[in-house]
Design goal:
Blueprint lengths: L2 H61 L4 E5 L5 E4 L1 H6 L10 H4 L3 H13 L3 E10 L7 E13 L7 E8 L1 H37 L6 H32 L9 E4 H11 L1 H6 L3 E5 L6 E4 L1 H17 L7 E10 L7 E9 L20 H6 L8 H11 L3 E7 L3 E10 L2
Parallel strand pairs: 7-9
Antiparallel strand pairs: 1-2, 1-5, 3-4, 4-5, 6-8, 9-10, 10-12, 11-12
This protein binds adenosine-5'-diphosphate (ADP).
The site of adenosine-5'-diphosphate has 22 residues, from helix 9 and helix 11.
Length: 412
């Protein structure tokens, strides 16, 4: 081989070798680049999946709150809202919308806007007298707690966190309790004031020396002290039934027809005095009812006694029906229906919705003749029946027919 050829061949081989080495290195680098790219992609995908899982978790957590939660920016534009907040505003989502255009009540809006401006934590209770906020129809006295706090961010303008809590049912319970205390104090004070008045007369005016007048005063005092005792007794029963004692009611089997007969016997002196008649139509099936017989006797006594009391000068007719039937659910369960009907003066339609309220008495019935009572009887009846899972309804055509209908499931 010629020297020139040898040199050329050597150069070519060297060039080839170096290009192979370069190609190899390049391939290696490309390969390693590809490797690191796919590693990075994998890492990136992992981060994305993790972030997505965290977001879903966060969303689930936010949506699990019953309270509406909203996070807004400085301008009051909603950045985050949970399901309860969307529902409250009756929208699918309120993200990106302003507080003022989504919250459907101007009082709530104003409260939140003011809090955002002040930028200080604040909790406020708002009573909306008549509003559709958060409801399908206008309701009286709904109550809301607006809980605001700024969320300071290190490098950014702060965000604002608002929680809107519906406290209407707690508010109503408090209202009922306040009214009960006010009414109870008033009802207790009246007989007490009368007793005190008579005592003063007896002692200071020396009436005690005159046996006839003294006897009259003492009789009146006894009437009012009886009323006081009855009021206290009935208030205790109501508070027991309301304070969850329903769960402590006895759960014993008893014959409901026997309970009704006992009540009729207990009231027979009054029935005879008023020349009233009580007719019973008992279901032929023996009705073994499970519950607290004391409360059932009390409820039936109140209902029959009311009919007699309210018609003291009329020889009325009272009928008591008991019936067992299958429940609508068709699952073999049975229900008990008790109907107590009288043909007395009845209850005017306008008063019917209120007669189960505590201390409610139909004024017309009591202004003409002082009918004994506290206005607590029907409230006790309703509580006692509801504590057994039952319901009571009243209907009345004054002078013709007044019916109290109780329905209650029979426990197997
Ligand atoms: P009270 O202690 O006054 O009897 P209730 O709560 O038992 O209180 O009853 C409330 C009011 O409902 C009574 O004061 C009376 O005006 C009316 N009422 C209840 N039952 C009858 C009835 N059968 N007929 C006419 N009025 C009734």
């Amino acid at each position: 081989m010629e020297p020139a050829t040898i040199i050329l061949t050597t150069i070519t081989i060297a060039a080839l070798t170096s290009s192979i080495i370069i190609w190899r290195n390049l391939t290696k680098r490309i390969h390693s680049n590809q490797q690191s790219y796919s590693n990075k992609r994998e890492q990136h995908e992992k981060i994305l999946t993790k972030t997505e899982a965290e977001r879903t978790e966060l969303k689930l957590l936010l949506n699990s709150f019953d309270d509406a939660l909203v996070i807004t920016n400085e301008a009051g534009i909603i950045q985050v809202s949970n399901k309860a907040a969307n529902q409250l505003c009756q929208r699918h989502t309120i993200r990106g919308k302003s507080i003022s255009s989504t919250l459907l009540d101007h009082e709530i809006c104003e409260c939140i806007t003011k809090a955002i401006k002040k930028n200080k934590p604040k909790k406020q209770k708002l009573i909306l007298t008549s509003s559709t906020f958060g409801q399908e129809e206008t309701i009286e006295n709904s109550a809301w707690i607006i809980d605001y706090a700024p969320l300071p961010l290190d490098n950014d303008t702060p965000l604002h966190r608002i929680i809107i809590r519906n406290v209407s049912s707690e508010h109503r319970t408090d209202q009922v309790k306040r009214e009960f205390v006010a009414n109870a104090s008033h009802e207790l004070r009246t007989p007490l004031a009368i007793i005190n008045g008579y005592l003063e007369n007896l002692i200071d005016d020396n009436i005690i020396e005159n046996p006839n007048i003294a006897r009259k005063a003492l009789t009146t005092m006894r009437k009012h002290s009886d009323r006081l005792a009855q009021l206290i007794e009935e208030m205790l029963i109501i508070s027991k039934l309301e304070s969850g004692a329903a769960a402590q009611l006895k759960n014993e089997p008893f014959q409901i027809n026997d309970t009704i007969s006992t009540v009729i016997d207990r009231l027979s002196p009054l029935t005879q005095k008023q020349k009233a008649t009580i007719i019973t139509h008992f279901d032929p099936e023996l009705i073994t009812f499970t519950g607290d017989a004391f409360y059932w006797e009390q409820a039936i006594y109140n209902l029959i006694e009311n009919a007699l009391k309210q018609n003291a000068n009329t020889p009325i007719q009272i009928t008591v029906d008991t019936k067992i039937s299958e429940t609508k659910k068709d699952n073999g369960n049975k229900k008990l229906t008790i109907k107590i009907t009288d043909n007395g003066k009845g209850i005017p339609t306008a008063h019917l919705p209120y007669i189960f309220n505590r201390f409610y008495r139909v004024q017309k019935h009591h202004s003409q003749n002082q009918v004994r009572g506290t206005g607590l009887g029907l409230s006790i009846v309703k509580h006692a029946i509801e504590a057994h899972g039952g319901k009571i309804k009243a209907s009345s055509t004054p002078g013709i027919e007044t019916t109290f209908k109780i329905t209650c499931p029979i426990k197997k």
